[in-house]
């Protein structure tokens, strides 16, 4: 489900895959203010709902509440096979996630 625009209509470009396609330049061009001129590579952080909820409950003073998790997960789209990037499992320790991400990025650059 896309985000509502000023007139209340759903914005089809708000879909995650469409936003990523625009960043990759495979769909309508980005406004000049969003162009970086560099390559785009996505890191998809994947995790079990209960793990994510547990981590959200442990946060204090953050705007993202557990009550918002289900709507966020409903809109989340995994990377498509033609999108450059890598998926990591949030159950892994942070150090391992960084290692995996850096290794995948290095592999994609070669």
Report the radius of gyration as a whole number of Å: 16 Å
Order of helices and strands: HEHHEH
Which CATH C-level class of the largest domain is it?
Answer: Alpha Beta
Share of helical residues: 25-40%
- The CATH topology assignment of the largest domain is Rossmann fold
Number of helices: 4
In CATH terms, what is the architecture of the largest domain? 3-Layer(aba) Sandwich
User: How confident is the prediction overall: mean pLDDT?
Assistant: 78
Can you tell me the overall shape? globular
Number of domains: 2
The poorly predicted ranges are: 1-13
Strand order of the largest sheet: 1-2
Give the distance, in angstroms, between the N- and C-terminal Cα atoms.
36 Å
The major beta sheet can be summarized as: 2 strands, parallel
Report the strand count. 2
Kindly name the structural category: mainly alpha
CATH superfamily of the largest domain: P-loop containing nucleotide triphosphate hydrolases
**Beta-strand fraction estimate:** 5-15%
What does this structure look like?
The protein has 4 helices and 2 strands. The protein is mostly helical and 110 residues long. It has 2 domains: 38 residues, no CATH class; 69 residues, Rossmann fold, CATH 3.40.50. The chain has a two-stranded parallel sheet with strand order 1-2. The termini are far apart. The N terminus is likely disordered.
In short:
With 110 residues, the chain is mainly α.
Topology readout:
Blueprint: H1 16-24, E1 42-46, H2 49-58, H3 69-75, E2 85-89, H4 94-109
Parallel strand pairs: 1-2
């Amino acid at each position: 489900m896309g985000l509502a625009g000023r007139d209340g209509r759903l914005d089809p470009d708000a879909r995650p895959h469409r936003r990523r396609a625009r960043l990759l330049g495979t769909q309508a061009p980005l406004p000049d203010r969003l162009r970086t001129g560099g390559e785009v590579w996505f890191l998809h952080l994947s995790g079990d709902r209960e793990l994510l909820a547990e981590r959200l409950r442990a946060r204090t003073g953050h705007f993202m509440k557990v009550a918002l998790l289900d709507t966020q997960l409903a809109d989340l789209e995994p990377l498509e096979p033609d999108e450059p990037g890598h998926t990591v499992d949030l159950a892994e320790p942070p150090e391992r996630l960084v290692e995996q991400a850096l290794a995948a990025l290095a592999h994609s650059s070669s």
